[in-house]
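Q: Got a minute? One more chain.
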Amino acid sequence: MREIDYKKEYLDESGRLYIRPMTEEDVPDFVRWRNSDIVRNFYIYRADFTVEGQKTWMKNNVDTGKAVMMIMCLAENDHSIGCVYVQNIDKTHSKAEYGIMIGEAEAQGKGYGTSAAKLMLKYCFEELKLHRIYLRALEGNERATRSYEKAGFVKEGFLKDDVIIDGEYRSVVWMAAVSEK
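A: Always. Here it is, folded:
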């Protein structure tokens, strides 16, 4: 793969946010974000994460090309505020599953999620040469759904009572973005 200047090539249109590959040094922040209630409550999988478990997951998935994890950073001070990623990368069918978390509470609701999603789609389509990026969102997470739509995802399906969370059935919205090339 080519050498990439992430702060330059993966800077959003407003110049406020860029994404860069996640490193082992980012893992403690990632685990803290993922275990916080402001993040966990929007995920289907809700078990606690550990630093050791995340490092193992990265070794088995990121290092083998099954996933790509990027840290969202504020351009003005390089402060990390969250993570965007694709997992279950399927080279045969040229697709992957998208995910995002804005871990810092003060960064939520400011458009960073939409910017990061656009940047990650650009990365997936241009660098990874994938054709389709899909995601699952819990029904009722309207803020996330609107953000995904602004980034280029479209609703494709609705799975009624697809998962059980805290003893209750929850429905899931499927969305996807497809490369124009």
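A: The beta strands are 17-21, 68-74, 80-90, 95-102, 132-138, 154-165, 168-178.
Q: Perfect, thanks.
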